[in-house]
Amino acid sequence: MVSMQQTPSFEPLFISRLGDRYRIWGIRARNERELLRAVASAALRFDLKKGAPQGPLGPGDDLDADGVIDERDVLAAAQVEAGKAKLRVGGAEYRLDQVVEAANRYGAKVPGKTVRMPERERYLMELLAGQGLVERAGDRWRSLGGASLIFFSNSSGREELEHELVHALFVWEPGFRARAAGLWKSLGDEERAFITKSLGGLYNTKDEELMLTEFAAHGAGGFPGPLFKVPAGLSDSLKKTSRRLREARDSFLRPASARPSGRP
Q1: Which residues sit opposite 2 in a β-bridge?
Q2: How far apart are CA 153 and CA 161, in angstroms?
Q3: How far is CA 244 from the centre of its chain?
Q4: CA-CA 20 to 30 A from 107: which of 59, 84, 118, 247?
Q5: Per-residue CA distances from 108 to 57, 60, 148, 232, 264 (Å)
Q6: pLDDT in tens for each of the 264 residues of the chain?
Q7: CB–CB of 151/35 below 8 Å?
Q8: How would DSSP label each residue in 46-89?
Q9: Of 32, 61, 241, which Cα lies nearest the Cα of 151?
Q10: Where are the domains of the chain?
Q11: How far apart, in whole angstroms, are the C-alpha atoms of residue 130 and residue 126?
């Protein structure tokens, strides 16, 4: 496990690779505020706008109208959007290229404004560079191969970590994606409509891939409340789907030496 030296303005992050089968790294923050500081830009760009990525930075991103687009604006925007969605940021998973894309937005020139990359996010990029995942390319960052990054804090629960791990597995394991897609197709119209409606408060339901990965992650977690208020008539079928998603997840995450012969 590697950590960067603590600076006066924030607590350190800790990074380690999670196993050697998939390119997945875990990044741990001391608390939820430090977690939000690390992922705010990526969350705004890819999650908190219901899956609709933001465009380039513009004058409207200077929320406190002080002439500077910086961490205060990013955190304020992330907190507002998370509040709208009634979302607690207990964990997050992003592809490395998404984190790099969010960081590179701070290279934009905005008329009449000074743009400052949040110190926490600069620190994160340096941490990733220390792991050989990114490198400087002039005034921008460049990813060095694909990877998934799972962000969590000391207060994150096991369920939150497993949820984010399913997202990473969805990225890296075609076999798991195929099983999740098969289970989604096997559901009846009523089950699919219920899941889609439940996810619609947080996600862009028109994004089919996003819906599939969220179905897999929430389903493996048992379709938990308060997001899912499962009616009695669907309880048995969704419990069966949840069990099958967990079995699929565990079969791929199990060490290769522990897998029965002939199984993936």
Answers
A1: 15
A2: 10
A3: 23
A4: 84
A5: 6, 14, 25, 52, 45
A6: 333 333 435 678 999 999 888 999 999 999 988 888 888 888 888 776 554 456 678 888 888 899 999 988 888 888 777 776 666 678 999 999 999 999 998 888 899 999 998 888 899 999 999 999 999 998 899 999 999 999 999 989 889 999 999 999 999 999 999 999 999 999 999 999 999 999 987 788 888 998 999 999 999 999 998 889 999 999 999 999 999 999 999 999 875 433 333 333
A7: yes
A8: HTTTTT----S--GGG-TT-SSEESHHHHHHHHHHHHHHTT---
A9: 32
A10: 2-153, 173-256
A11: 6
- Look up residue 171 and give its two tokens: 């990225």
CA–CA separation, 34 vs 12, rounded Å? 9
Beta-ladder partners of 7: 10
- Single out the residue of 39, 148, 18 nearest to residue 89, CA to CA: 39
For the chain, how are helix, strand and coil distributed in percent, rounded to 5?
A: 50, 15, 35
Q: Is 85 exposed, middle or buried (0-12, 13-18, 19+ CB in 10 A)?
A: middle
- Contacts of 256 by beta carbon, 8 Å cutoff, 6+ apart: 21
Among all chains, which residue has been given the structure tokens 């949820």? 163
Nearest to 1 by CA among 19, 14, 12: 14
Helix (H) or strand (E) holding 199: helix 189-199
Residue type for 52, please? A
- Residue type for position 105: R
